[in-house]
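F.,

This is the one I mentioned.
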């Protein structure tokens, strides 16, 4: 038996074992009231944002909603 056939047999057997347990159906999402913590500290002023962009040599990205 070739290595590929052996691998397919092992994976098929493992899948059959896992599928029969219903682990995905038993999993419950954790519900909390915690707000997500920011991972990036944003500049407090436009001048600080420009200075940081120049320092890091990156472009500024401006995004806004509701200005038509």
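My design for it:
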């Amino acid at each position: 038996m070739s290595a590929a056939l052996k691998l397919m047999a092992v994976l098929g057997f493992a899948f059959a074992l896992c599928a029969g347990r219903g682990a995905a159906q038993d999993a419950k999402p954790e519900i909390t009231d915690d707000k997500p913590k920011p991972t990036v500290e944003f500049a407090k002023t436009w001048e600080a944002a420009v200075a940081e962009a120049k320092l890091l040599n990156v472009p500024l990205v401006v995004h806004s909603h509701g200005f038509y």
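The helical segments are 3-21, 23-26, 46-56.

Talk soon.
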